[in-house]
Structure formats: C-alpha cells, structure tokens
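Readers of this paper often ask what the protein records in our data store actually look like. Nothing more is needed to write down the fold, since each code stands for a local backbone conformation. Below, we set out a record of this kind in full and without editing:
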Amino acid sequence: MLRYSLTAIAAVAANGVIGDGSDLPWHLPEDFARFKQVTSGGVMVMGRRTYDSLGGALRGRTSVVLTRHLDWVPTKTRGCQVLPVTNLSELAAVLARHPDQRWWSAGGGEIYRMLWAYTTDLDISEVHQPHRGTVTFPAIEPDQWQETSRTPRDEFDFVTYQRVGAAATEALEALITDAV
C-alpha cells in the first residue's frame, strides 16, 4: 500500500492570520531557519503570489507553483527546478514524479484551502499574538487534527499535527494514482 503525505507548513497568528497578501506580518528568524531546515530536499507547492513574495525559488527544493496564468514563466529560479501548474491534475502528475521527496504545501491561503482535503500533516509555527492581515490559514479543528509535538519558544511554538483518520491519505493517494 502506498503512503503519500502532504504537509502544510505555515506560521499562523493567534487569530489565524498568515499574511496580508504580499508579506508576512512578523519577522521570526528562528522560524525561517527551521522552515529552511525541514523543507530542504522537498517539493514545495505554493501559489504564484507566494512564490513572488519569496523573491524566487528556494534553494535546495523543487518549487511547484499553482497559477491561473497559463503563460506565467518563473523568474529568479536560482538554478532550482520551478514547475508551473494550473490545476490539481497537473500538480498530481508532478508530485507523482517526485515520490521520494517530502511534499510540502507552503501557501498562500487559497492554496492551503485547495489542498486541505489532501493534507495529511501540519507543521505550524503558532504565533502567540494576533496580527493584522487579510490572508488566513484554515481552522485546525481538534476533531480532525491530533497534536503530535510542541516546542515552545518566546513568541511562538513549533507544533506538528497529524490528520485523524485516513480520509486525507486516501484522497491524496487517489489523486496521485489517477494522475499516473
């Protein structure tokens, strides 16, 4: 039996805010360092605006960019593989070609919601304070997610969750299998 997983990674304020549509509402160097460490070598799925807000590709990772613009061409690839896709079928086909890499959903808000039914794990930096912003992370409902670890910090906690039940894993496996 296959065991695919898709982990959403985000820094989320106490009020659910993850950004304002173009930038993060905080600067947490330890969070950035951990993000780099855990996602290195993986496949990062993100929206075009998130890709642009990062200033280009993240070294040591494959970037898959979901965009509505069929003619979008990535800039600032920094020698990294950047693969634009326009729908879930194309995304699934790309992920199927990278079965040995960890798959990450890196935002923004629309992308997290689009992939929520396929998201098996969460890697969240829970920012203790509320922040202003227009982009939010989906609600982490306790009946759907089980906390598996928590590492407290001064301004935030590193928290991991695993989806309760097999529905997301089964949906992700079906999506990938249909694309192959």
Remarks:
- The mean pLDDT is 95.
- The chain is about 25% helix and 30% strand.
- The chain has one domain: 6-179.
- Residues 60 and 126 are 25 Å apart (CA to CA).
